[in-house]
Design a protein that fits this description.
Organism: Musca domestica
Domain Sulfotransferase: 47-303
GO molecular function, one term: sulfotransferase activity
CATH class: Alpha Beta
Helix content: 40-55%
Number of strands: 6
Structural class: alpha/beta
Strand content: 5-15%
CATH superfamily: P-loop containing nucleotide triphosphate hydrolases
Distance between the termini: 32 Å
Protein name: Sulfotransferase 1E1
Pfam family, one: Sulfotransfer_1
Length: 339
């Protein structure tokens, strides 16, 4: 993998966070993507757009499928017959594969409205019209310790790591590379503006804890309704067991394109791998778990918050529904908690 380089956007969202924040902010990117990012900065954003923005391996696919169904009147038939990457394209993907600056944004430009677009870009690298027009953005964060582990398995399968690179090697590299702060800047900036009415901020952990409530909150955020029967269908369709065996949500085409580019050999891999929280504790040595815990604690402390704050695990979350709403767990919610 190429090392990180510094990139300065055309301008920063000073209408969201003050200039003094951006004066200190360093954006790191990987690969030769400056022209692409400058093009992204200027693209047309529409009022009815919905953008799912996350860091990699933070529940992006899970939220994409959820949001697409809500936006499209719970059309499970189309969802089961059309790949998610067609219904909700990953904005950066075409350029990553082809480096064709002229055609790289065609998948989102040709998408029928209302568009659901996925991106892994940081707040200051997103299209500037998102900050100005305030198109709807759904941001999902995740415990970076789990994200690092999931990321390792994914990029190793993609042929993007040397064969000798162990999971411990990869985690230590993520901790001590010069762009190690990028992950935390990304999380904190969206957390800081979470009260913006056009932004829905949640976490992978919240989705695991109470998927029903997250669905209700997304519906409210998008101005949609859902009945009890449809809710049960959603909970089943979005359960980890169903997502893992669903070829439409496992990015098979995207994975094949990446593996062709990297000349990766045959390898069995499922994009929806485990879907667990705190799984890093099972995969890393006790010494590295302790080192990683201390690293993350120190990184988030620089913003005056805790990791639980960022993950909305301190009973402070932006709910779009009655906070007193409670009901028994459905069968599929119980299944999800066991996975």
């Amino acid at each position: 993998m190429e090392g990180p380089t510094v990139f300065k956007p055309k301008r920063y969202p000073t209408n969201l966070l003050p200039q003094e924040h951006w004066d200190k902010r360093v954006c790191y990117v990987r690969g030769n993507c400056e022209k692409f990012l400058n093009k992204v900065h200027d693209i047309q954003v529409y009022d009815d757009d919905v953008w799912v923005v996350t860091l990699p391996k933070c529940g992006t696919t899970w939220m994409q499928e959820l949001v697409w169904l809500v936006m499209n009147d719970y059309d499970f038939e189309t969802a089961k017959n059309t790949n998610l990457e067609v219904r909700s394209p990953f904005m950066e993907f075409n350029y990553m594969i082809t480096t064709d600056l002229e055609k790289c944004l065609e998948p989102i430009e040709n998408l029928k409205h209302p568009r659901l677009i996925k991106s892994h870009l940081a707040l200051p690298l997103l299209p500037s019209q998102i900050w100005d027009k305030k198109a709807k953005v759904i941001y999902v964060t995740r415990n970076p310790k789990d994200a690092y582990v999931s990321e390792y398995h994914f990029i190793r399968h993609m042929g993007l790591l040397p064969p000798q690179c162990t999971i411990d090697d990869y985690i230590k590299g993520r901790m001590y590379e010069k762009d190690c702060n990028e992950q935390f800047d990304n999380m904190y900036e969206f957390y800081k503006i979470r009260s913006e009415p056009w932004l829905f901020y949640t976490s992978f952990e919240q989705m695991k804890l109470n998927l029903r409530q997250v669905i209700l909150d997304v519906c409210k955020f998008l101005g949609k309704s859902i009945d009890d029967v449809t809710m049960e269908k959603m909970l089943k369709h979005l359960s980890f067991a169903e997502m893992k065996k669903n070829p439409r949500t496992n990015h098979l085409w995207e994975i094949e394109e990446v593996r062709k580019k990297t000349n990766a050999g045959e390898s069995e891999f499922n994009f929806c791998r485990k879907g667990e929280t705190d799984s890093y504790k099972k995969e890393l040595s006790p010494e590295l778990v302790k080192e990683l815990d201390n690293f993350v604690k120190e990184k988030v402390a620089q913003y005056g918050v805790t990791l639980n704050d960022l993950l909305l695990l301190n009973n402070e979350k932006k709910s779009y529904t009655n906070s007193m709403f409670k009901e028994k767990l459905s069968f599929w919610e119980k299944v999800a908690q066991r996975t």
